[in-house]
Design brief:
The protein is an all-alpha fold. Helix content is 72%, strand content 2%. The chain has a two-stranded antiparallel sheet. The two termini are 17 Å apart.
């Protein structure tokens, strides 16, 4: 079960938490997609990721394949967020402050989990997938694509935190 956090002592049912978490992940992915579309090379990463999965050149990947890969990656990153978040909440707080931090429904562990996910999204794409499957985009404009991907990953992280805070504030306990 992948719970959504920040509900206080009495959490909603597991099914409701899972449904809410799935909606938040999808919404965060869609918000990141909007950010990607607004950048000159922002939608290159879904094509490159689909190329890596299909083992064909990025230039031959279809738009639907890129879209499905992008949405699946967003949901998978949300699962990583929840896993890291759960793990952090179960650890004793080494700094003594993160566990008590709660700004507008966003806890210190959620902030750290989002930072981990953003770094993973950026790092895995930029330094592992892109150099191997980026094709022409990697050969001609790697810095631009990486910079735009960093912006999109950060937008995803912020949207994930915002969605988690909103949902945790409206779900019944």
């Amino acid at each position: 079960m992948i719970p959504l956090h920040g509900f206080g002592p009495a959490a909603p049912s597991p099914g409701l938490r899972l449904a809410a978490a799935a909606v938040v992940r999808l919404a965060a992915t869609l918000v990141a997609t909007i950010a990607m579309w607004r950048q000159s090379y922002g939608y290159v990463p879904p094509y490159v990721a689909a190329a890596a999965l299909s083992r064909e050149p990025a230039s031959e990947v279809s738009r639907p394949a890129a879209d499905v890969t992008h949405l699946a990656a967003g949901v998978a990153a949300g699962v990583v967020f929840e896993g890291v978040h759960i793990g952090l909440e179960r650890l004793p707080d080494p700094l003594g402050a993160a566990a008590e931090l709660d700004v507008a429904g966003v806890t210190g562990s959620a902030l750290l989990a989002a930072a981990v996910v953003v770094c993973l999204l950026y790092g895995v794409f930029s330094w592992l997938v892109f150099p191997r499957h980026g094709g022409n985009a990697y050969e001609t404009r790697p810095e631009t694509v990486r910079r735009e991907w960093a912006v999109s990953a950060a937008v995803y992280g912020v949207a994930l935190l915002a969605g988690t805070a909103v949902v945790s504030g409206v779900l019944p306990a």
